[in-house]
Amino acid sequence: MTVYFIDGQFTGKDEVKVSIDDRGYYFGDGVYEVIKVYNGQLFTEKEHIERLFNSAAKIHLSISHTEKELVEIVKALIEKNNLVNGHVYLQVTRGVSARQHHFPMPEVPAVLTAYTVEGERPTANMENGVKVKTVADIRWLRCDIKSLNLLGSVLAKEEAKQAGCEEAMLHRDGLVTEGSSTNMFGVKDGVVRTHPVSNLILEGITRQVVLQICQKLNIPVEEKAFTVEEAYEMDEFFFTSTTAEVMPIIQIDDRVIGNGEIGTITKQLQEAFTLETP
Ligand code: DCS
Question: What is the pTM of this model?
Answer without folding.
Answer: 0.97
